[in-house]
Amino acid sequence: MTSLWNDEEAAQCSGDLAQRIYSSRLLGREPALVLHGGGNTSVKVRETNVFGEDDDILHIKGSGRDLETIDATGFSPCRMAHLLRLAQLPALSDSDMARELKCSMTDPSAPAPSVESILHASIPHKFVDHTHADALIAIMNTPDGAERVRELYGDRVMILPYVMPGFKLARLCAETFPKEATAQTVGIVLMQHGLFTFGESARSAYERMIELVTLAEDYLDRRGAWKIAVSSAPPPPDQRDDIAGLRRDLSSVAGKPMILMTHAAEKCAAFARRDDLATISQQGPATPDHVLRTKRLPMIGRDLDGYRIAYEEYFRAHASTVRGELQMLDAAPRVILDSSLGMITAGPTAKDAVIAGDVYRHTIEIILRATALAGYRALSADDLFDVEYWDLEQAKVRSAAAPRVFAGEIALVTGAASGIGKACVDSLLRRGAAVAGLDISPAITEMHKRPDYAGFVCDLTDESQIRRALESTVRAFGGLDMLVLNAGIFPKATSLASLTSSAWREVMQINLDANLAIMREAYPLLKLAPKGGRIVVIGSKNVPAPGPGVAAYSASKAALNQLARVAALEWGADGIRINTIHPNAVFDTALWTEEVLTARARSYGVTVEEYKTKNVLGVEVRSQDVAELAAEMCGPLFAKTTAAQVPVDGGNERVI
Ligand code: ZN
Q1: What is the mean pLDDT of the chain?
Q2: Cα dihedral sign for 182, 184, 185, 189?
Q3: Which DSSP state fits 296?
Q4: Residue 612 belongs to domain spanning
């Protein structure tokens, strides 16, 4: 591992806190050191308070903040005197500790200080860095891990046995450090947990971290346990029904819809197919930090009932030894290793599934390296249970906000790169759905950069592309719950007498045939939706009230309308409901080019402006108005409605 320290960049950061931020971000850039909010850093400074007195302050990373992006607002300023007094207490529950940490702050609006704050305070050096470095963890998580660490670092580090993070660990460190640390000591190894380094400058603490981790990498390399060769055949091309079926069952165990993410990396697939998987994957996570993101154990294969029963037994066996009421977490796995599907991660949101994936990819490397070194050994089930059912975590479960209406659900929108489709994507994302956007425009792939969005280029007139897009959607999120059929074209006005058959066929192909194909291909997936499948058809006012000059368009939308009504009849027994919106005069869409607008206005004998608000209410109808109704049609408001046709047109005299 190379140091990313750059003297020029560092020189721009004046003051202790700025230096602290700079090197914290360097640590955050290395996923083999810290992942998704893992690790923490601090700096001790003397400040003058409002009374003009000197105060020793520990600026420590706030709980849940990410080192890669941290700034001054991500640090919590805590009074050292308060923290050091806490370290002397014989015992303190972690929830009392969390409250005391907040009380020690000089700024009540700062984030809650890291649970490792007292530990940082008890290390007498100015800058303290803490990571969960993969290479070191691979060495520690072996049967003779402590001896190996001693052999590797000699007396440059102090080694502490595994103790649950929180007050007990802080107290152990506060007691041991003055007794065991020497002038040579540059770090502390917490067995099965991670590494602390420290120094009088941001650079020395950071570079000691890099140096110690590099030594661990070299140690593994010399023993043939660093580079792990993998090879695996690519997955079969059509697994979407299989994955969606697994998601339906897993959601039922979880008691809520879940997102499932399939990981394409060869390393993951190869791991899922190993002969010794049942041994090496069932020891436990690599560090306590990982327990909360991936649960205690991955599921091998698809025996969800077996997994659920084992989890409930594990809970019952340990919960009785813990004081106080514990609320059992859902018994669904967060990592699935299957010889045919490869590696899949699950979570109540797409972000959770991404984090579980990132964490488990690192776990795989740690397991394989430890296995190559001397055999992988994780924490005991008791220790893992203490972390999973930590009282701080239970408090989070109790105080969690109600999930958003479409949390854990997946929507697909066609024609999503602009206009009504784009607005539908936004409305669905706002309600917590993971959304796949399809469009012929390549802009679709870059429309949002967030874990709950995936854009796929798709020509809907090509059925193989539709199948591929559905496969990609299911690999990204696990299934399909909601389908918004929005893509369509509105051709130039043409009288019947001059309407060519090829122009007619082009409109039918996109507005009608493509929707039949996507509905048919999506049907097996919608049938597996945990809360029932939903389809919303973006129809047109032209269905109830056709206009002259748009025969192909009106006929295509009328046929689509009948298709939707038949689908409602045929698929109602599968719990799939399908409702239609008839928008009119929505002008902020790609259909309404200036040319089309002018032509339509002329055919009605009015100006473009009059044409835009020509409705009973005299209002302009926007894409967002249509999108909000489309999203609501997928929600509880329309739970008992199918085959409805609702206009969004400001009131049209010919329709009324
Ligand atoms: Zn830690």
Answers
A1: 94
A2: negative
A3: S
A4: 590-620
Residue 594's SS3 state is helix
* Ligand 1 centroid to residue 194 C-alpha, Å: 6
Pairing of strands 299-300, 187-190: unpaired
214 burial (CB, 10 Å; 0-12 / 13-18 / 19+) is: middle
Active site residue 611: no
Q: Between β-strands 187-190 and 534-538, what pairing exists: parallel, antiparallel or unpaired?
A: unpaired
Same structural domain for residues 127 and 166?
A: yes
- In the reported structure, the alpha carbon of residue 16 is separated from the centroid of ligand 1 by a whole-number distance in angstroms of 23
Is residue 337 one of the residues assigned to a domain? yes
What local confidence, expressed as pLDDT, does residue 36 receive?
A: 84
Number of domains in the chain: 4
In this predicted model, what pLDDT tens digit does every residue of 313-351 receive, in sequence order? 999 988 877 666 788 899 999 999 999 999 999 999 999
Q: Out of 206, 553, 604, 611, pick the active-site residue.
A: 553
Rounded distance from Cα 314 to ligand 1 centre (Å): 25
The SS3 call for residue 61 is strand
Task: Kindly state whether residue 641 falls inside one of the protein's structural domains.
Answer: yes
Q: Are residues 543 and 605 in the same domain?
A: no
The pLDDT of residue 611: 87
For residue range 47-56, list pLDDT tens digits in order: 999 999 999 9
Closest of 356, 402, 360 to residue 256, by C-alpha: 402
> Is there a domain that residue 167 lies in?
yes
Are 607 and 630 within one domain? no
The pLDDT, as a whole number, for residue 323 is 62
Answer whether 603's CB lies under 8 Å from 547's CB: yes
| In a domain? residue 405 | no
How many A from CA of 254 to the centre of ligand 1? 28
- Longest Cα–Cα distance of the chain, Å, equals 98
